[in-house]
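Q: Can I borrow your eye for a moment on a structure tokenisation matter? Would you mind producing a protein record, from residues through to fold? Write it directly below this note and I will take it from there.
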Amino acid sequence: MKSYKIFNAIALLLILVVFFSCKKSDEGGLLLNNSAPRKFAVVITPNTAMRIDPLVFSSRVALLKKGDFGEVIDRTTEEKRVGSNRNYWYKIKLSNGIQGWVFGENLNILENADSDNVESYLGKFWEKESEELKKELHGKWWSVNRFNDFTNHCLEIYNDGRYKSYLKGATKKLEGEYNFDFNKSQIIFLGETSFEGNLYFVKRGDVYTLYRESDKDEIKFKKINVNPESENEDSTLVKKSQEEEEKQEKNESETE
């Protein structure tokens, strides 16, 4: 009889430990290994605001990157208008426990999802993003200084994942393959380059700029032709890049 009571006490203790451990884990963040279907949201636009309330002028909780995701824990009862778009606001819980509201136009909602659904979607999502970015960056790029004068480095980027890098006037070109680190917004060069390193990419309007910042120097590249093997500069493309940069600088100064 005594041993039976001890067994029951141990069993009850184990049940309580498991219960509170699961509860604590769920409060701390997302449990993607939980197979129960839930609703998830994936951010599909860059620099997306997560807000305290479902209002465009509400205080911002976080700035989300394209590809960030979280569990949907609430939704407005009616669609709201933001600019020319109408959609619901969704309350999202991120893996770090942060919660806030995001406008639906910036999200892709995965209904009845589990860990396999989310991982599968993200894999296809980044594969598509990679192919689109390769098309955008395809062309010939020259390095420029802070006065936008051309300097010594040339970079040919191909949409099949190859690149060629060389110094102005050089007969030998360094060749290799590249891929992307979307978390850092970086092009990762898998071989040697004339500028020795990887590059960040940033889009301003419809124009991309490639750059690298370090303690030693700063290198910035601008696309001069959509054909990576062209020997000529496309003045229209260069002018458009300059205009987008000036517009961005003006917007930043007005914000300050």
